[in-house]
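Hey, resending since the last one bounced:
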Amino acid sequence: MRSVIGIDMGGTKCAVIHGKIGADGIQIVNKIKFSTGIDMPPAEVIDKIIAAIRELNADAEAIGISCGGPLDSETGTILSPPNLPLWDNIHICDILKEEFGIPVKLQNDADACALAEWQFGAGRGADNMIFMTFGTGLGAGLILGGRLYTGKNGMAGELGHIRLTEFGPSGYGKSGSFEGYCSGRGIAQIGYTLGMEAFQQGKKPAYFNPDDITTCTAKSIADAADQGDPTALAVYAKCGEYLGRGLSVIIDILNPEKIVIGSIFARSQELIWPEAKKVIERETLARSREVCEVVPAGLGEKIGDYAAVAVAVYNGGK
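The structure tokens again:
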């Protein structure tokens, strides 16, 4: 079995994972987690990462890093992401390669998750697969022709920035964007708008408090929808409609075999998919639609661990 190290870097925590890869897939052997904090100096975090790798005593052949962008995966450089503002032009791969003498690879978190689902999860066996994050925001990783496609400078897959309507919920700094309709923050915005409309009509949506916007979350609305609340069901139906619109564009342009969607879609598929499916059946070319399967992510809540390990394993594809 191949032994590798994965590093899942976030704004509040970091996890260093020892994984083993064999014919049957991936095994997470051990993991060390520690808090980081947005103000923690990069040198201090890197020291903790080095110490964790040594503590794992993995005898690893490669290291993979999954981190939010922007970053330069070619040079292995982190370029001041919003959740790591102090990490400006930090050559993390060079630092770790010099320390351990093994290959070190860096990918943004959406691309890393795409690699994980493709190599070990719901996209296994596909040559053309799209992975979509559907959590706080919306992004994507693209597997095209049996390899990760990142574009000219690593910006491929920013699906959340696509504008679907001129006006609408805001995401990615753009009203009416794909992220505005299909993300946790977007669902909350839709929920508040429809909740206020219902409240002004004398209705009382189960999730809605007109004096407290914080009651509108993707989870609270989903919980209300699961109990049959009509406004909550309408919120998820609208999300599904616009998911269908966005997916239709992807299906017709990229002709994938699989679209794998994580987080909120995986948890609330029964609320979102019926409307999305209707739109896809209406909007897409039949030949493209017939070969494309839309499925929830297969790696669950541990996808961050698998993603980091998957970066270490990936050799560039075909």
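The longest strand covers residues 25-35.

Sorry for the duplicate.
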